[in-house]
Amino acid sequence: MAKKIPIASDHAGYELKEELVRYLKELGYEPEDLGTHGAESVDYPDYAGKVARLISSGERKQGVLVCGTGIGMSIAANKYPRVRAALATDELTATLAREHNDSNIITLGGRTLKVEQARAILKKWLETDFLGGRHARRVEQISEIEAGEGRKS
């Protein structure tokens, strides 16, 4: 059974999202396309929430969001508990987002990346594991902040 990966975009990320849905299938994943389903203007927080809620609840382990730059989706998704959405602009940032930050949502820019770049970034992110160790301590510190416990530094 293929791993399910929720994916969503706003209008600015629609074309790239469509390409990535096809690519996820090529890689053996089962993409769950949560919209948008056209190039008409929509509000990106609505679509960020569709993926972020699945990750936050634990129903899905990883997700993909696309908007014009990836920034808005990242900001909106990170408002949900247990979501660590990371904007990746190249393969290195994708790798480090997984290895160091245990990111569970990748955000990509439909207006800033070529299709081949986005495919390479997504593949690298999906293939990279969290390193744990000292990074696990830091991710736990983020969870404490999220829980309202704050950092006492």
UniProtKB/TrEMBL annotation:
GO terms for molecular function: ribose-5-phosphate isomerase activity. It comes from the Bacteria. InterPro entries: RpiB (IPR004785), RpiB_LacA_LacB (IPR003500), RpiB_LacA_LacB_sf (IPR036569). D-ribulose 5-phosphate binds at D10, H11, G68, T69, G70, I71, G72, N101, R111, R134, R138. Keywords: Isomerase. The keyword Transmembrane helix does not apply. SUPFAM superfamilies: Ribose/Galactose isomerase RpiB/AlsB. Gene3D superfamilies: Sugar-phosphate isomerase, RpiB/LacA/LacB (3.40.1400.10). One of its GO terms (biological process) is D-allose catabolic process. The active site is at C67 (proton acceptor), H100 (proton donor). Belongs to the LacAB/RpiB family. This is Ribose 5-phosphate isomerase B. The lineage of its organism: Bacteria, Candidatus Glassiibacteriota.
